[in-house]
């Protein structure tokens, strides 16, 4: 049940990022909510599988930058999820620049933290 809650929270956060961040857009031909749900599922799976490895590998740089590099790791994971969503499912997410991906990762992190605190999930 925890993964389903994490998936829903991520979908809400991705929808907020698509709505707020210019350059992070859904360009699919189908329903936008279905594409956002697929992208959120892939992002949740990437966060569960690849994120711990990248956190350990980037730990020295993260410590030197006092945690700021952690935002770069989140941005990289967003790029990986967009690449997988477009390649495997044709979800149609377009990231125009690194800046838009960076801001989108910040928005997704903030909205996820807020929704997790409302829902009471510890993910």
TrEMBL record:
Tree of life domain: Bacteria
Keywords: Membrane, Transmembrane, Transmembrane helix
Listed InterPro entries: Phage_holin_4_2
Transmembrane segments: 7-25, 31-50, 62-85, 97-119
Protein name, per record: Phage holin family protein
